[in-house]
UniProtKB/TrEMBL annotation:
PANTHER family: ASPARTATE-SEMIALDEHYDE DEHYDROGENASE, DEHYDROGENASE, PUTATIVE-RELATED. Pfam families: Semialdhyde_dh (PF01118), Semialdhyde_dhC (PF02774). Belongs to the aspartate-semialdehyde dehydrogenase family. InterPro entries: Asp_semialdehyde_DH_beta, NAD(P)-bd_dom_sf, Semialdehyde_DH_NAD-bd, Semialdhyde_DH_dimer_dom. SMART domains: Semialdhyde_dh. It catalyses: L-aspartate 4-semialdehyde + phosphate + NADP(+) = 4-phospho-L-aspartate + NADPH + H(+). One of its GO terms (molecular function) is protein dimerization activity. Keywords: Amino-acid biosynthesis, Diaminopimelate biosynthesis, Lysine biosynthesis, Methionine biosynthesis, NADP, Oxidoreductase, Threonine biosynthesis. Homodimer. Its EC number is 1.2.1.11. Gene3D superfamilies: Dihydrodipicolinate Reductase, domain 2 (3.30.360.10), NAD(P)-binding Rossmann-like Domain (3.40.50.720). One of its GO terms (biological process) is threonine biosynthetic process. This is aspartate-semialdehyde dehydrogenase. The lineage of its organism: unclassified sequences, metagenomes, ecological metagenomes.
Amino acid sequence: MTKNSFANVDIVLFSAGGARSKEFAPAAVEAGAVVVDNSSAFRMDPDVPLVIPEINPQKIRENKGIIANPNCSTIIGIVPVWPLHKANPVKRMVVSTYQAASGAGMSAMRELENQTREILDGKDPTCKAFPYQIAFNVFSHNSQLDADGYNLEEVKMVKETRKIFDCPDIAITCTCIRIPVFRAHCESINLEFTDPITPDQARDLLSTAPGVSLIDDRENNRFPMPIDATGKDDIFVGRIRQDQSIPENHGINIWVAGDQ
């Protein structure tokens, strides 16, 4: 690919890392194409819309040649939060992610499989895609830490959610973890709302929300799992319950699973 590769192209999809996007996306735009970029290169650029179709599709019209796609953990987390936020503004989000190997690509998935075989065969696991053993293990997300001790994945969720919701004052804190699952991330999300809200009200809102499917079977203790979400577009939501630590029914807990 060269910077002259985009003549007579209408739409260009970039998903080859931020450096490649920064190098080639401007050339594609100059050639007349619209770029949809999956990297972090342009997400926080104020002139680039950051779009999730189930939340802010109208922002597509504001593009100046580039449309950014959010991080996977952000999408999975906030697609089900959005219909709740529209009905009753969220004041604070506390998110813990349980992220599959697939988020780091095919080499990471193969590493999980190979390490599993190695360990079961009594061998030491080979670590290449991840800095630590992923099979039979859990570790903090392997992205760069900032001066405050937050990793890049956590920072992305905070900044991207505020931009997509157009809500710079929403309080968000996040902890991102890698788990030994092939595909689909899960997230535990605690929400504090402006006004009281009950689990039934939250369930009703989520039951008709675009891109959301409910698996919330308390009787059988059946809630979203990675195997439910694998290969699916919807975000699966369950474990919808009142946060009894927040007074006057202002808090809700949910559990979500989504492929990426």
